[in-house]
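Case study.
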Amino acid sequence: MDGMGAENKTTEVYRSPIGRNLKYVTHLTRKSPLTVLGLLILFITVLLAVISPYVAPYPEDITYASHLEVRLKPPSLVHLFGTDDLGRDIFSRVIYGTRISLIIGLIVISIALTIGSILGAIAGYVGGIVDEILMRITDIFLSVPSLVLALSIAASLGPSLVNAMIAISLVWWPWYARLVRGQTLTLKELDFVEAARSLGVSTHVILLRHILPNCSAQIVVQGSLDVGYAILTAASLGFLGVGAQPPTAEWGLMIGYGRQFFPTWWWVAVFPGIAIFFVVLGFNLLGDGLRDILDPRLRRE
Amino acid sequence: MNGLVEVRDLRKYFTQGSVFGKAVVKAVDGVNLTVQEGLTLGLVGESGCGKTTVGRTILRLIEPTSGKIMFDGRDISSADNREMKKLRSAMQIVFQDPFSSLNPRMTVEKIISEPLTTHTSLRGADLRERVSHLVEIVGLQVEHLKRYPHEFSGGQRQRIAIARAIALNPRFLILDEPTSSLDVSVQAQIINLLRELQSTYHMTYLFISHNLNVVHHVSNRISVMYLGKIVEEGPVTGVFENPKHPYTQGLISAIPVVQPRRTKKEIMILGDVPSPAHPPSGCRFHPRCPIAADLCKEKEPLLKEIEGDRSAACHFVKA
Amino acid sequence: MMEKILEIQDLHVHFHTFDGVVRALDGVDLVLNRSEILGLVGETGCGKSMCALSVLRCIPEPGEVARGSIYLENENLLQKTENEMRALRGKRISMIFQDPTSSLNPVFTIGEQLLDVIVTHQSINVKEAHKKAVDILRAVMLPDPEMVLRRYPHQLSRGMRQRVMIAMALSCNPSVLLADEPTTALDVTVQAQILSLITYLRERTGASILLITHDLGVVAETCDRVAVMYAGKIVEIGDVSSVLEKPKHPYTIGLLDSIPKMANDKPSLGVIKGFLPNMADPPSGCRFHPRCSNVMEVCKVKEPRLVEAERNHCAACFLHENQGAAS
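After joint prediction, the assembly is written out as follows.
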């Protein structure tokens, strides 16, 4: 077996990928301060979401409460963002809103991603009439502007946060289906998929083990960008009255509700709006940063 | 002569086309092969000759258009999925490109376990033991099991691919240009490994390659393909020392050899390898053949036996 | 008397990558004489392509020449401005690449691309340039040059595209032709044609050719002299017959042993143990020492220089240091 033990000790030649990738990530991040900003914003958002009941100065104001003696007070040291017409502290409600918005965004995108990826992978791999049918269905969904479609679905299901989330998931999955289908078409030609077929691996296992895991990079980028937009869409539905219902401290709802107090008592609508702005910005910057990191063309190998 | 694998009149036609017209590409057009058990058949040819398609069709990774494929005496050309799955453990393949033949998201352990989990009931500690054993057989180490393919060099990845292919103790292994992407020194290691495995596990090889030096080194018999057909076949030494078909002669003459003082017949084949979508009439080689005559343009020569265990498809080769 | 056309002296090319400084070329000395074909062989990553790119001053980012000089007919190319280099490329030095498909622009006809080269470097009118183009296509054995000029690259076969590339490279009669794996992507029968063409063109034009390849067979049949590279350095250089029949450096010996020969007995192929070094962190002393079966203590600490081991044949190995004077 001369020469057999020769290909030994690869540790000398190839370094640990985790260490190297981490270093690479920090290097890239330093080159792109906007990504760092995005990460920071999101970190704060997530943190607030987790600890909101503890940092909100007036936790009882998060749902229904009534302190009419302090209604519509402007921002002050006692009420950082002012109070609304029921005397509820807007700062507490905005903070608690991070939890609601993040949950909405993550759940919606997770559902849409799962459904879309599975259907897209099946369509791409199996091809033929299954693919045709799926493509026509996604065509139908994609031909209508997403907000309009979500609005109609939510309205017909009845105004509630859960229905809004269902509506948005239904509107979103076709994008992922298309994305994953495209990736699947490329992947299924690669040798390792053929190797799996030559080993007699069944189709559903090939999809789960070989196709879907290799689509994840693009999905992660797209998904993280989309969480921001999902939050925005949910807020839009809430604003229009078909999403979250009072007394939930959802930002969109708060803006919609706060319209009637604009411009005299501007703080009721503006602060939730600023919150939405920052969170969506954070996700956007993160998504862009992730795309840069994962884009092989930008890597210096 | 009955071999472990026999292929009779195998054809694979691809239809390429659009609204503007369809073309039939006869990638494999009537190929006969016999691979004797325990031995290696080398399948050589240049680009577009169809040798890779032959390999994939034998394993039914591509469905043949027509023809018979026999494995161990049984006709498997129309076996259904369930039967094929059972046969998969006996017939395996190693691909050319070590960079795309391993799933980048799976660890080496998972990659090599896959055939075992698909076909056997080995799990847990038993599975791990078998996988560790396989990894060592191919010259890697147990520490490598937890790593991902991108952490390895081309030669090492090819070893992983080989470990995966032999996991189920196949009787027949198709090697589709296994060393063409590797550096010369690494190629030598892989060839040595393949030969050792063959003798240890008594495997039968179909070795597909365009590199004649390598094919000569590993094969017992050789079949030469040109544009979807076999033009010559026989024992490797005989064919190399005394090629009968003009294409084989030109091919062997064209190989650059290191021993520069060897005098060899200078037979230059002119022209380019034609596209399989538009094969020439009659003998497919006639436009480039130094001895082509009118007969060659009209009539296609059949593969006929000459000297016992050799055959050639040329009007001017005497039986 | 051999006249030096191209001389590379102590060339160091460094890449400032994320993993550290990669010394792609680490002190390369090379001489290309007039009208000779010099083979440059080595495996992946040894730096052979980088040598050619350095001569043309086309080193990709993030690489740069750290030290050394490159003389073309006694002019130091590393001291020229970019404009001067641009005037040189295609006219006095040309390069042909491995993949003819990606080296030709798919949206222009062959004629447009070939005329572009000719007109850029020679002040002649279009009609004359066209005539020259036809002549050069004929010189590379393309049948029906007029038709070829009208075609697009994808309409030609790979062999024909490579001939077109060679035509473009030789259209202005350069003194030096750098050929980077010109036949690696071609079928064996087409490769034979192209190699024969290159040899013929050398006779006809007197160009000096640096033929980069990993195939020692190609070197044996085409080259006059050969240089073997390993890990950014030249480890052996000399007349082809001497180097291939009596190799002196253990790496060259190992490389030749690992090529399957068409012999009747088929022993195991010779194997060079170990693996290619990490160029960001190469071994100390002789780069080859971890893999060498003749390794001595000195090899681990000192780097060997090229010394004459036989007439017109040098090797960088301490095994031969005593026998000859420094080259």
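Observations recorded in class. Chain A has one domain: 34-296. Chain A touches chain B at residues 1-8, 10-11, 13-14, 17, 190-192, 194-201, 205, 209-210, 213-214, 216 (CB under 8 Å). We will return to this complex in the next lecture.
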